[in-house]
Design a protein that fits this description.
2 domains, 8 helices, single chain, about 325 residues, mainly alpha
C-alpha cells in the first residue's frame, strides 16, 4: 500500500488501515455489481407483471413479511419479494464499502464522503420502492426509481475508480477539445436515460398484469426521440475516436481501452434497442436492454474519469500509467 501522510503512527491502527485499504476495492466492485444487478431484477419485476405481487410495503401482505405459498399463489409475489431481498444485499455491501473506506485514513475526506452516497441512495430507493407499490406503480414514480438507480450506479463507478490501486493516466497532454467531448458524452447520457425511461413508461410493460398506468405518449414517437439522443451519443463517441487516433502518441492504453469498451457496449445496446422496437418488445430483449443501461453507465463514467485525472497516479509495483 502506498505511504500517505495521513497514515496512522500506531502499529495496530496502521495494520487496521492496511486491512481496510486492501479490501476496499473488492467491496467497491461488489457494490457496482449488485447495483447493476438490482436494475435487472427490478426490470424482471416489471416485465413479468409482478410489480404488485406484494400488495403492501414493507410487509409483503398485511401481517406477513414473506409471501405465503398455497395452491392459488402465483409466481408474482416471489419475484417481487426476491427483488426486495436483493435490496438487503445492497445495504450490506454498501455498509461494508463505507466501513472499509471510512476507517482507511489514507483516503481523502472527499473520497470517504463519496463512498457513503451509494448507501444513502440505496436507503432512498428502498423508501421509493415502497411508495411505488402504494401508488399502484404510477409510471412517473417507477421511472424515477430506475433513474435514481442509474445515478447510484454512476456514483458507485466513481467510488470504485478512486479506491482502486490501478494506475491512472493523466490528461495534462490531451487536447482540451477532446476532454470536453468526453464530458459531453457524460452529459448526453442523461437525456438518453431519461428518454429511455419515458419510452418504457409509454409501452405495454406497466409492471402489473391488472394495473395499466402508462404515460400518455405515442410509444413510437418517444422511441424516435430516444433513438435520436442515442445517435448524438454515438456521434460524440466517433469524435472521441478521431481524437484518440490523431493524438495516440499522448494516449495511455487505459484511455484507448476505456473508449473501445464504451463503443462495444453502445453498439450492443443499440442493436438490442432496435430489435425490441421492431419485434414487439420481447421480455428477454427489454431485460437485456435495462441491464446494459447500467453497464453502459459504468463504462461511460470510467471513460470520463480516465480523461479528467490531471496528473498520472502510479501505484508502486503496478504497470506504468502512461504510454511510452
Amino acid at each position: 500500500m502506498p505511504q500517505s501522510p495521513n497514515a496512522p503512527a500506531n502499529p495496530i491502527a496502521r495494520q487496521r488501515t492496511q486491512w481496510f485499504h486492501r479490501y476496499a476495492n473488492g467491496f467497491a466492485i461488489a457494490n457496482v455489481i449488485v447495483q447493476v444487478g438490482i436494475v435487472l431484477t427490478g426490470g424482471l419485476v416489471r416485465l413479468t407483471g409482478s410489480g404488485l405481487g406484494c400488495s403492501t410495503w414493507p410487509m409483503c401482505e398485511p401481517g406477513e413479511f414473506t409471501p405465503r405459498f398455497h395452491e392459488a399463489t402465483s409466481f408474482h409475489p416471489f419475484i417481487e419479494f426476491g427483488n426486495r431481498t436483493l435490496t438487503g444485499v445492497l445495504v450490506v455491501v454498501a455498509i461494508l464499502l463505507v466501513l472499509s473506506v471510512t476507517f482507511d485514513r489514507t483516503r481523502p475526506v472527499w473520497v470517504r464522503r463519496l463512498a457513503a452516497l451509494p448507501l444513502v441512495g440505496t436507503a432512498i430507493q428502498a423508501v421509493l420502492g415502497g411508495i411505488t407499490v402504494l401508488v399502484d406503480l404510477h409510471p412517473a414514480v417507477v421511472g424515477s426509481h430506475f433513474f435514481i438507480s442509474i445515478v447510484i450506479i454512476a456514483i458507485s463507478a466513481m467510488v470504485q475508480y478512486y479506491v482502486s490501486d490501478q494506475p491512472r493516466p493523466g490528461a495534462a497532454k490531451i487536447p482540451g477539445w477532446l476532454i470536453k467531448t468526453v464530458w459531453a458524452v457524460q452529459i448526453v447520457l442523461i437525456p438518453v436515460v431519461i428518454l429511455g425511461v419515458i419510452t418504457t413508461g409509454s409501452g405495454p410493460h406497466s409492471g402489473d398484469a391488472e394495473v395499466g398506468y402508462r404515460f400518455a405518449f405515442d410509444p413510437m414517437a418517444i422511441a424516435r426521440f430516444h433513438a435520436l439522443s442515442v445517435w448524438v451519443y454515438v456521434a460524440l463517441l466517433a469524435l472521441i475516436g478521431y481524437g484518440i487516433a490523431r493524438h495516440r502518441h499522448v494516449m495511455a492504453p487505459q484511455q484507448t481501452h476505456a473508449w473501445l469498451i464504451v463503443v462495444a457496449i453502445t453498439l450492443i445496446q443499440g442493436g438490442i434497442g432496435y430489435f425490441q422496437t421492431f419485434y414487439g418488445l420481447p421480455v428477454a430483449a427489454v431485460a437485456a436492454h435495462m441491464l446494459l443501461a447500467g453497464v453502459l453507465t459504468v463504462v461511460s463514467v470510467r471513460l470520463g474519469l480516465f480523461f479528467t485525472t490531471p496528473k498520472p497516479i502510479r501505484i508502486p509495483g503496478a504497470a506504468p500509467a502512461t504510454a511510452a
